[in-house]
Amino acid sequence: MNQLARLHDRLTRALRSPSRPDHSRIASVMGAGLRTVLESFAQERALSGHVLVLTADRAQSQQWAQRLPRRGNTVVRLLSTTDALHILEQQPARADQILVSSYQTIAHGPGARVLDDLGFDLVVHDQPRVQDAGLVRSLAGKTAHSVVLHHLREQPAVPEWPLLFGLTREDIGGISAQLQIQECSYTAEPEERELRTAAWRVLSEMGRPTGQREIPQLVRALLGAISVSLPVEPWSQPHRIWELIDKFESLTVDESRLKALSETLRKEAAVRDRAVIVVDKVQDAHYIAQYLERCGFPVRSILSSRISDDVRRAEFSCLRAGETVVATAATCGAQDNWLPKTTLIWWPHQANAFMDRILDAANSTEGVKLVKFHEQDQS
Fold it and tell me: What are residue 117's phi and psi, to 5 degrees?
């Protein structure tokens, strides 16, 4: 049993212990794979009572519904008003069902009514925000057991609940050896930096500040800031925005981040690693894929939430050495594992809600590498 398995076993024993608190917290650093344990525990508890899994947003709820092991339980998705109305029209929920939802969905309306007549044997709270604390506490009154999972360094929604299990970076020091993390530094071209700074300034002046750095996202932000009700005069903001967009589209240099990406792929191809480029949005995926095609790096496929679970699993499992896939973070977060010798290339500038899931799966597979890009400061 490796160190990761031993830590997971410790958490499983803590969750199953008859002496555990009725309502407790699990605090962990990113990438420890503790959701995998909670998924299995939720399946166990669903054999004898209702189980509810709540997340901060719908995308995270979708991932729980996709990843819950198939052990004869029924996973019921409560992700919209339509879902809620459908559930309300059905027969009373069976004890072996696991209900997956988000705090926003159950806060009011039909989503809240679904929970009115239900008591739960277990409620799993996946990273509730401080503003969700009221819902977390109110549900505890109709729940035999509650578990809150939160990041070690973040303020927990219910700090008064006792800590059932905590995992620090030192605790998983041996695990990180299984996942190789590489940071790739690059320098932005002066022309690119100047345009980006100008875009930030204009957007800030219009009350729409953004931290976006990629050119496509900046252009989208600029387009979104244009109001048709304003005159497009030479001195007006819309005129300045159109000028900036024209300059972005006529850049004589490739975006520096893209050049760093193609160089990384060239190195990975030399050792025959398969590559998965993780992006935020589908638009980013197409932008990257088009650039890579121009550079002679054919992309096997673009994967997003628009495809079925079966297609997603098939594409990832059939990815051969030297091939590249571009996929959204939400799609990658639904993976249980990766093929050996897979290089995950993290495109977003910051970690997001899906990085936990992706690292969980990466830590369970030997020979997986994570590449992150870092723009060097020119100041």
Answer: -100, 15
* Domain locations along the chain: 3-172, 178-187+254-375, 190-249
Return d(Cα 115, Cα 120) in angstroms, integer. 9
Q: Which CATH superfamily is domain 3-172 in?
A: P-loop containing nucleotide triphosphate hydrolases (3.40.50.300)
Note the pLDDT tens digit of each residue in 246-290: 887 777 556 788 888 988 888 877 776 789 999 988 888 998 999
Which three-class secondary structure state does DSSP give residue 171?
coil
Torsion of CA 168, 60, 77, 137, to 10 degrees: 50
The burial of 293, by beta-carbon neighbours within 10 Å (0-12 exposed, 13-18 middle, 19 or more buried), is given as exposed
Read off the pTM.
Answer: 0.67
Q: Higher confidence at residue 375 or residue 233?
A: 375
Please tell me if the domain spanning 3-172 has the same topology as the one spanning 178-187+254-375.
Answer: yes
Q: What CATH number is given for 178-187+254-375 in this structure?
A: 3.40.50.300
Q: Are 156 and 23 in contact (CB under 8 A)?
A: no
Contact in structure between 305 and 62 (CB atoms under 8 Å): yes
Using DSSP's 3-state secondary structure scheme, residue 79 falls into coil
Strand ranges across the sheet with 143-151: 74-78, 97-102, 51-55, 120-126, 143-151, 23-28, 163-167
